[in-house]
């Protein structure tokens, strides 16, 4: 079985500050890891993903995440927050062999203050 | 131009009714999914179809019946709607070569009164 835990249901930062959204996973096989963003009243948009290879992955809108196997983590970061980053962020894990059965975390709402 | 589209966007109905949600993707993908997002924003997979064949069925009540007339469409029919069915339903699609990379539709907010 696989699971995802996102630490902190709400994160608040000032514009220009570092964004750090935490994600820890549990998986019995090498995982595929994803971050999705959901803006209000919209569907989920893929930010970035890790499958194999380089453990630091870059995504859209200046976000990046690092896969750390020893810590079973896949934290999402952005050096400088922008007001437009305010949204809900979901971390997800899959086995890569199960026809796309994604298991999602409970989501983290990011608020950006002026 | 919309990659994954769903209709309707909003659906309000009475308990006991039967309703359908339609999903279409123009990405050329051969795998499609339905997810349910509850009031606490928890997102859980319901079904997955690959080339019109059911691949994943996650302990969803029999009242929910997906139908895939072709690879580009996956509709969700719900019989005898219950209050607990109120949620946002998302359709998604993915390519065989990258089945776990999924592209989501805008969602359908279902409210059962």
The span between the termini of chain A is: 41 Å
What is the succession of H and E elements of chain A? Answer: EEEEEEEEEEE
Which percent bin holds the helix content of chain A?
under 10%
**Relative strand content of chain B:** over 45%
Main beta sheet of chain A: 6 strands, mixed
The total of helices of chain A stands at 0
Q: How far apart are the first and last residues' alpha carbons of chain B, in Å?
A: 34 Å
- Which spans of chain A of ≥5 residues are poorly predicted at pLDDT below 50? none
The helical percent of chain B reads: under 10%
Describe this entry's structure for a reader.
The complex is a heterodimer of chains A (114) and B (113). Chain A is mainly beta and 114 residues long. Chain A is built from no helices and 11 strands. Chain A has strands at 3-7, 10-14, 19-26, 32-38, 44-50, 56-58, 64-68, 73-78, 87-94, 103-104, 108-113. In chain A, the strands form 2 sheets. In chain A, strands 2, 4, 5, 9, 10 and 11 form a 6-stranded mixed beta sheet that branches. A 5-stranded antiparallel beta sheet of chain A has the order 1-3-8-7-6, with no helix packed on it. By secondary structure, chain B is mainly β. In chain B, the strands form 2 sheets. In chain B, strands 2, 4, 5, 6, 9, 10 and 11 form a 7-stranded mixed beta sheet that branches. A 4-stranded antiparallel beta sheet of chain B has the order 1-3-8-7, with no helix packed on it. In chain B, a hairpin with a 5-residue loop joins β4 (31-37) and β5 (43-50). The relative contact order of chain B is 0.34. The A-B interface holds A 32, 34, 36, 41-46, 49, 51, 88, 90, 94, 96, 98-104, 106-107 and B 4, 31, 33, 40-45, 48, 50, 55-56, 90, 92, 94, 99-107.
């Amino acid at each position: 079985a696989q699971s995802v835990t996102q630490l902190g249901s709400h994160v608040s930062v000032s514009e220009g500050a570092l964004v750090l959204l935490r994600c820890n996973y549990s998986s019995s096989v090498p995982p595929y890891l994803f971050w999705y963003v959901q803006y209000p009243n919209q569907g989920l948009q893929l930010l970035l993903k890790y499958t194999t290879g380089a453990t630091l992955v870059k995504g859209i809108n200046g976000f990046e995440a690092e896969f750390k196997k020893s810590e079973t983590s896949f934290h999402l970061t952005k050096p400088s927050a922008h007001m437009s980053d305010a949204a809900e962020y979901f971390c997800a894990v899959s086995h890569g062999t199960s026809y796309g059965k994604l298991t999602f975390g409970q989501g983290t709402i990011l608020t950006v203050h002026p | 131009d919309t990659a994954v589209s769903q209709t309707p966007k909003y659906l309000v109905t009475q308990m006991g009714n039967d309703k359908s949600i339609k999903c279409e993707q123009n990405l050329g993908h051969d795998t499609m999914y339905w997810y349910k997002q509850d009031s606490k924003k928890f997102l859980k997979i319901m079904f997955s179809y690959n080339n019109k064949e059911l691949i994943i069925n996650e302990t969803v009540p029999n009242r929910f019946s997906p139908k895939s007339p072709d690879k580009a469409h996956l509709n969700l029919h719900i019989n005898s709607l219950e209050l607990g069915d109120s949620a946002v339903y998302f359709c998604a699609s993915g390519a065989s070569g990258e089945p776990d990379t999924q592209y989501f539709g805008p969602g359908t907010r279902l409210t059962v009164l």
